[in-house]
Amino acid sequence: MPSHTVDFVSFLVDRSTGPPVLNLESLPFNPRVFVSEFSRSPATGWRSLCRLAPAVNLCQDDPMSAHDPYAVVIVTHDHAETLGACLAAVEGLEPAPARLVVVDNASTDGSAETARKRPEGLAATVIREDRNIGFAAASNRGIAATSEPWVLLLNPDCAPRPDFVRKLLEAVAGRPEAAHIGSASPKLLRAEGPDIKPRSVIDAAGMVVTCSGRHFDRGAGTGDDGSYDRPAWVFGGTAAAILLRRAALDDVAYPDSEFFAESFFAYREDAELAWRLQLRDWRCLYAPSAVAAHRRGFRPEEGRRGHAAINRFSVRNRFLLRRHCADLWWHLRCFPWWLLRDLVVVGACLTVERGSLPALGDVRRLRIDCRRRRSWVLGRRTVPRRQITRWFRRRGRVEEVEGP
Question: What is the rounded average pLDDT of the residues 1-22?
Fold first, then answer.
């Protein structure tokens, strides 16, 4: 690394001589990240710093508050039945979002018209696609249309409680690690009907990952009996409802500006984003005090029979997920569980689930893109390998913390 670069980075973070130029607790990133990147490539380091700069007040005393502005992004595809209830819930959020963006994926049921009619009290933008570009790409379009420090990604069949975002922001702000929290995951309850009426059944309490390469919504399908009422560090959160820090999104966005990998189209894209965030030391906090209802259409615990498209995306994206984010160390530490699961998946494609067989061809077709993305992702890792593999247990892993 050039000596003038070392001197400048040291000058920014040194606390030994007088007041520091930067309040380190105010930074939503680890300065060592940039030291590491500068050492490999000064140009890359400067680009990363410049990309984060707009989202960071470098001299502030308070890293964030429970009143930080946020935007809401909703992706729809033939969700007119529940979209009205979802938007009504968004209208009732306190504090109100600074911006609402609805991206309609070529719906034919009037979803875009429903979004345009309401909500009256919000600055709403409706982006209409002329074809279904997929959840990942549509989410990217919606996020790119916002500029707030936080983005709430919300499914059109979700209805958050009025204090939903306030509880999430308070949970983040109340942690000593607040500056390193890249996302906050709420407690989701199963819901029914077009009015998204909640039930006392857990839909998701954060995301857990296993050594077989699978990921699950924690607690899905179990009773809401208090077992998931403690805050915890989790691997990630479902994209059905998750609060994302813009600085974290900008930090892990691919060079082509994709926040979610658009090659996934739909399904498992939230796990891929969560893995990239973990590799860059952005943590995910599960905050059970923030509650939303979710009328989930597809329930994994009930099996995938009769869901041919979902099955194909699920099979393909299982392999893309590893090809983007998993290194040799992960494969060694999680052996033989991922291999056994691979054999089961491939065997099913060849026998009982032949409609998913083209997914294996998709994986081969995308192999060059996967290689490029993995090289970029792993080349920017800032945490020890063991810090990642510790999440991949046979039944997943969470780390409960003290807090409301």
Answer: 41
Please write the tens of the pLDDT for every residue from 371-389.
Answer: 999 999 999 999 999 999 9
Give tens-digit pLDDT for 275-294.
Answer: 999 999 999 999 999 999 99
Residue 388 lies in a domain: no
Residue 216 in any domain: the answer is yes
Q: Supply angle C-alpha 151, 250, 382, rounded to 5.
A: 120
Cβ-count burial 361-383 (b if 16+ within 10 Å, e if not): ebbeebeeebeebbeebbebbbe
What's the rounded Cα separation, in Å, for the pair 311 and 381?
A: 31
Instruction: Cis check for the bond before 95: say yes or no (omega within 30 of 0).
Output: yes
Collapse the DSSP code of 126 into the 3-class scheme (helix H, G, I; strand E, B; otherwise coil) and give the result. strand
| C-alpha closest to that of 161 among 60, 288, 73, 58 | 288
Longest dimension (CA), the chain: 70
- Tell me, yes or no, whether 116 and 213 share the same domain: yes
**What values do phi and psi take at 153, rounded to 5?**
-90, 125
Classify 265 as helix, strand or coil.
coil
Q: Are 213 and 322 in contact (CB under 8 A)?
A: yes
CATH, residue 199:
3.90.550.10
Q: Give 48's pLDDT tier (boundaries 50, 70, 90).
A: low
Q: Which helix (H) or strand (E) holds 159?
A: strand 158-160
Measured between alpha carbons, how far is 350 from 331 in angstroms, rounded to an integer?
24
Tell me the three state secondary structure of residue 177.
coil
Same domain, 295 and 360: no
Instruction: Name the nearest CA neighbour of 102 among 82, 137, 73.
Output: 73
Residue 192 shares a structural domain with residue 321 = no
CA–CA gap between residue 385 and residue 388 (Å, rounded): 5
Partners of 280 in the β-ladder: none
Paired tokens of 381: 């890792």
pTM score of the predicted model: 0.84
Angle, alpha carbons 260-265-270 (nearest 5°): 40
- 73: part of which helix (H) or strand (E)? strand 70-76
| C-alpha–C-alpha distance, residues 165 and 171, integer Å | 10
Convert the pLDDT of each residue in 66-81 to its tens digit.
679 999 999 999 999 9
Choose among 270, 348, 238: nearest CA to 303: 348
**Residue 152's beta-bridge partner residues?**
72, 243
